[in-house]
Design brief:
The complex is a heterodimer of chains A (113) and B (108). Chain A has 113 residues and is mainly β. Chain A has no helices and 11 strands. The chains are: A mainly beta (113), B mainly beta (108).
Chain lengths: 113, 108
């Protein structure tokens, strides 16, 4: 079965611009979460969505936002990009509830110049 | 929040050697997973192992939940095992907390 799919894989943006990243979860998975990976901070949780509702949010500024659609696909948006937003953004999906494995996509590499 | 510590941070092995990676965590958890991050950035799930022992080929993992640690064993290492290994834990909120990883280099 298809894994977690993220688009685009690579992108370059300019400071001040905004970016939207997309994630399609594994079929049947309704929980979608996003993570940021940087060399300095490692892997950090951004937010998690279930049934189009944000259930949990990490410690990131309001410039980072997301949403989930009725088909469980999710998007995340970063507005007013800063150089420090350059990172690998990873999407993950799982069936709901503890006891379920979380699976990751290949990620979107964002470079802000 | 939960703290996750991985050791060693770096490990260099000759092909065929065995290794043990350790993950300590600071609180009880209901999910613990080991991942291998490939050179393209994808996190490949190795084990879902909040407790007990599992084996998958040359890899095995053990989590002792009461003592808050997990071990990942790699036997007969191959160059394709190179990469970064992450331990991540969750405490019921579908938000994984990751360790800083162990960077493994297997030399031919």
């Amino acid at each position: 079965k298809a894994g977690v799919t993220q688009t685009p894989r690579y992108l370059i943006k300019t400071r001040g611009q905004q970016v939207t990243l997309s994630c399609s979860p594994i079929s049947g998975h309704r929980s979608v979460s996003w993570y940021q990976q940087t060399p300095g901070q490692g892997l950090q949780f951004l937010f998690e969505y279930f049934s189009e509702t944000q259930r949990n949010k990490g410690n990131f500024p309001g410039r980072f936002s997301g949403r989930q659609f009725s088909n469980s696909r999710s998007e995340m948006n970063v507005s007013t990009l800063e150089l420090g937003d350059s990172a690998l953004y990873l999407c993950a999906s799982s069936r709901d509830g503890p006891g379920n494995t979380i699976y990751f996509g290949e990620g979107s590499w964002l470079t802000v110049v | 929040g939960i703290q996750v510590e991985q050791s060693p941070p770096d490990l260099i092995l000759q092909e065929g050697a065995n290794s043990t990676l350790r993950c300590n965590f600071s609180d009880s958890v209901n999910n613990l997973q080991w991942f291998h991050q490939n050179p393209w950035g994808q996190l490949i799930n190795l084990f879902y192992i909040p407790s007990g022992t599992k084996q998958n080929g040359r890899l095995s993992a053990t989590t002792v939940a009461t003592e808050r640690y997990s071990l990942l064993y790699i036997s007969s290492s191959q160059t394709t095992d190179s990469g970064v290994y992450f331990c991540a834990v969750e405490k019921g909120r579908r938000a994984l907390t990751f360790g800083s990883g162990t960077r493994l280099q297997v030399q031919p």
